[in-house]
Specification:
single chain, MetI-like fold, 14 helices, globular
Length: 293
């Protein structure tokens, strides 16, 4: 198809504008990465770093040697792995149940799930609930409240509804029970949906912050995002947290700003590395699960 001169000019301007927007959004990320690899002496003489003249891994070596950061990283990893697994089990099981037309009270359950998307109890009732269950200062207080999402349940329910009934009937002829059909037939053909929602859950658990502020007072159970926020407060105000302040006081004379930049890079890297492997499942799962209802 032939295009006119005006259309080609518009395309050039459009691509240039989009490339400029992309570059502007990338600059802060590049700055964080460059500062994290900057030598401490160079940063102290010139805090504005464009391209470091002297590269250094001292900030990364230091944060990996501190117990506070490594402990918080372990907590976040536990939340991302165990929390995502539990959420996928609960979400997929509930979605499969309400996707079966033979389920008695199916519409009631669907409406009940939908209501939770429109109304919520609020912060104080949730806090009182967690406290009454004895989950305060427990790692499970960061998993159970986020165990499932009504929106993800409905999307996955749509995905399961599109699976041919013949697969389930064939499994039942072979003697499978409802649980057997779900585990041996439904889940293996739902890899794309599970990967897509698993990525969402993993990112949510890895970035857990607000619930940790509410329910966790134990230093040993702080996830990484809370430690990063305390690092910012400790270095900019007089409200110093003892464990975080000790981490920022580097014996190698590394500036706190460089340590914070390295911590940000390390905290972002796992999710950035996981996404490329799940991208094809992510796109397929979200498109198929959201077309039909």
């Amino acid at each position: 198809m032939k295009t006119g001169y005006g259309y080609r000019v518009f395309q050039v301007i459009n691509y240039f504008f989009l490339a400029l927007c992309g570059l502007v959004t990338l600059v802060p990320f590049l700055y964080v990465i460059l500062v994290s690899f900057t030598d401490a002496t160079e940063y102290m003489t010139s805090p504005i770093v464009i391209i470091p003249k002297h590269w250094s891994l001292a900030s990364y070596e230091y944060i990996f040697s501190t117990s506070t950061f490594m402990r918080s990283m372990g907590v976040s990893a536990f939340l991302a792995i165990v929390g995502t697994a539990c959420s996928l089990i609960v979400t997929s099981a509930l979605a499969y149940a309400i996707s079966r037309k033979r389920l008695k009270g199916r519409k009631f359950f669907q409406v009940s799930i939908l209501i939770t998307m429109l109304f919520s109890a609020g912060m104080i009732p949730n806090f009182l609930l967690i406290d009454s269950l004895g989950l305060m200062n427990s790692i499970w207080s960061l998993i159970i409240p986020s165990l499932t999402s009504a929106w993800y349940v409905l999307l996955m329910k749509n995905f399961f509804s599109e699976i041919p009934d013949e697969l389930e009937e064939a499994a039942r002829i072979d003697g499978c029970t409802d649980i057997g059909v779900f585990i041996k037939v439904i889940l293996p053909v739902s890899t794309s949906a599970l990967a897509a929602f698993g990525l969402f859950y993993a990112v949510g658990y890895w970035n857990t912050y607000f619930n940790a502020i509410l329910y966790i007072n134990n230093d040993a159970l702080r996830p990484m995002q809370v430690v990063l926020q305390l690092m910012l407060i400790t270095s900019s105000t007089q409200m110093a947290d003892p464990s975080v302040a000790a981490m920022l006081e580097s014996e190698a004379n590394i500036p706190p700003q460089v340590i914070k930049m390295a911590a940000v890079v390390v905290s972002s890297l796992p999710i950035v590395m996981v996404y490329p492997f799940l991208q094809k499942y992510f796109i397929k799962g979200m498109m198929v699960g959201s077309v039909k209802g």
